[in-house]
Amino acid sequence: xxxxxxxxxxxxxxxxxxxxxxxxxxxxxxxxxxxxxxxxxxxxxxxxxxxxxxxxxxxxxxxxxxxxxxxxxxxxxxxxxxxxxxxxxxxxxxxxxxxxxxxxxxxxxxxxxxxxxxxxxxxxxxxxxxxxxxxxxxxxxxxxxxxxxxxxxxxxxxxxxxxxxxxxxxxxxxxxxxxxxxxxxxxxxxxxxxxxxxxxxxxxxxxxxxxxxxxxxxxxxxxxxxxxxxxxxxxxxxxxxxxxxxxxxxxxxxxxxxxxxxxxxxxxxxxxxxxxxxxxxxxxxxxxxxxxxxxxxxxxxxxxxxxxxxxxxxxxxxxxxxxxxx
Amino acid sequence: xxxxxxxxxxxxxxxxxxxxxxxxxxxxxxxxxxxxxxxxxxxxxxxxxxxxxxxxxxxxxxxxxxxxxxxxxxxxxxxxxxxxxxxxxxxxxxxxxxxxxxxxxxxxxxxxxxxxxxxxxxxxxxxxxxxxxxxxxxx
Lengths: 326, 139
Hints:
The complex is a heterodimer.
Chain A: H1 5-19, H2 28-39, H3 45-56, E1 67-70, E2 75-78, H4 92-109, H5 115-132, H6 155-164, E3 168-174, E4 179-193, E5 196-203, E6 208-213, E7 217-224, H7 232-241, E8 254-260, H8 262-270, E9 278-281, E10 287-293, H9 297-305, E11 310-314, H10 316-325
Antiparallel strand pairs in A: 1-2, 3-4, 3-7, 4-5, 5-6, 8-10, 8-11, 9-10
Chain B: E1 7-14, E2 21-28, E3 33-40, E4 50-51, E5 58-61, E6 67-74, E7 83-84, E8 91-98, E9 106-111, E10 123-128, E11 134-136
Antiparallel strand pairs in B: 1-2, 1-11, 2-3, 3-8, 4-7, 5-6, 5-9, 6-8, 9-10
């Protein structure tokens, strides 16, 4: 016998109540109140009793739901706590967690996550969504996000190439050298820094791990070729030692010493910008900040962004570089 | 090598004597032969000048008289239209799609204009060496 649509909506509410870990053992009054709240309809105890009876029936008429009235607690329960009429057992915590995750992902920028993910999550939540989305959605997380720029259309292809270890041929344009080059890269990672996306991989041309801005990647083509893998250790070292993306100087890790004013010192004390950061407080509230990292153009930009509040103490070439861009 | 697949050759051939055009890749497909270029605007013009492609452009192999006509282009207009750069620091990646040449090692010429000048996009003796070709994965 096909399940009546209204009845099915009530089953979903009953199921939700029985899986609600915040309010266990709902009694008949709780069920009636929740149905009224969620579905905006009045129903009777007799109807809900019948609903529970149907839910306990074997499929296809029911769900074989292990519902029992707990006399000690004076309420209903699923004797199997993992049971759900949806097959995928999502309790209220699960639904909340997924909803929060969706919020965070959306705030980072829905476009950065493929539509496939959104679609999949919608499928998972489709059964419970109408029960959880009673409030109008309002934004409660905002992150620094600029809509995608040139090259972002290759994100999915490059993501798949990293995941499936597929070499890519693409045309790279270097802004600094004003030069085109067709390259073959064995990509291992996509990285975001300051709202720009980069693909990192072993470049056959350079015979080393390199970083390429997606905005400078043209017409990537996946190719059949043995993948030149890069070990996790090498990738970690490459990523962890550099602040930003494009290394300066000789690309070697070195000691950097900065002097920061009392005001700027607060920011550095509040949050490290690099794992190697060490803040040595001075008497006047200012600080000597040291790093062991590979300096980059992004590091220079950061220093410049603080104006006179921060100055480079060492090394000399970095003092000159910062001066040059002031 | 599976010749049924599209084959890709990385060429990186800088045009001489004017070096602001580079022939980057050739892709030998069933439907077309695609040639990828990069063009860097020069100081010759205050605003970088312009680019266009003559619709009568073609490819020819050294081993036959056959001509493989230009079918369409991507990111470069066909004459008499032209793309005017905004500054002499501009650049453009573009592709030309010709009738498909045979998938075999050979030398080809790209002819935009017979009796070309330095500014025309003619290329001679492009080496198509299938030993260096990569097979493209199609989704």
